[in-house]
Amino acid sequence: MNFPFFNRLQVKKIVAASSEAGQRAEAMLAAMLREQPELLLAYIADSQTGSILASYTANSTYNPNQLNLRTTKLLGNMADNLAANSWLGGPLLDMSVLLEDQLHHLRPIANGQWHCFVAVRLADANLGILKEVVRQATT
Amino acid sequence: MSTPKQTVDGIKAELPTLVAVAVVETETGMPLASHANMADFDIETAAAYNTEVVKSKLKAIKALKLNQTLQDILLTLTDQLHLLKLSPSGDKFIYLAVNSKDTNLAQARQIMKAHSASLN
Predict the structure, then answer these.
(1) Strand residues in A15-137 grouped as ranges (E)
(2) A4-138, superfamily in CATH?
């Protein structure tokens, strides 16, 4: 049964799983938010299962639960691509998507076991800064 | 308006050190025109996988109900940059792979932007 009360997102607050991995992921998101407080959405998920370890959203319309399985599948697809040797430039470091006024950034972390997804308005950040903020917070 | 072949030739002329370039049909994932400077670069397989990247991102935008169009997808590998840019109608995309030591992201993006606008 679907209880809307239990599915309500906590806005502008980092929500983390109560495991050691969840605490580590929460610390990474906190470091990102210190450098880039205007983030619209950020989450760290397990790349095998797709389960979210920690997440943050600035607005209830940006729901990490609608994206985590998609980003997990996308990274799996890219791993297949690398395994097929159709990309010869080495492992994927990150992926950035530019929309009209938003920037989405996806980075495999923790030796590919996890991944981090971040969305921000282009008015609040640029690609170079966001890449560096995510890299520093997750390594 | 440029044909896929003209687009590939135009990008090749501006970026002679590129690794590979292709104009890909979004629906099928098949290249309409392509060129690779590396003999072992399998551009057909790369185009097929990249099509899945584009489709996956379009689905994610739809899931978030973002009323926005996809501009660019940039993939940073250890030694290469891979860029995907949709044509104005969205039925094709340009796929460009460059060595990061030869070409930076801003240069590659500008060249892609100029050529995708006229892609027929």
Answers:
(1) 15-16, 41-46, 52-57, 92-99, 102-109, 114-121
(2) Dynein light chain 2a, cytoplasmic (3.30.450.30)
Residues of A in contact with B81 (CB under 8 A): 89
Strand B31-36 and strand B20-25: the pairing is: antiparallel
> Closest partner residue to A97 among B41, B70, B82, by Cβ?
B70
**B57 vs A: CB within 8 A:** yes
Are the Cβ atoms of B77 and A61 closer than 8 angstroms? Answer: no
Condensed to tens digits (0 to 9), the pLDDT of residues B49-100 reads 999 999 999 998 988 888 888 989 999 999 999 999 999 888 999 999 999 9
Domains of chain B: 4-117 (3.30.450.30)
Where are the domains positioned within chain A?
4-138
- Model confidence over A107-123: pLDDT tens digits? 999 999 999 999 999 99
Provide DSSP, B91-109: SEEEEEEEETTT--HHHHH
Task: Identify which of B53, B65, B77 has the shortest CB distance to residue A89.
Answer: B77
pTM for the whole structure:
0.92
The token pair at B105 is 């992201």
Predicted-assembly ipTM surpassing the 0.95 threshold: no
Cβ contact B57–A74 (<8 Å): yes
Of B72, B76, B97, Cβ closest to residue A93: B76
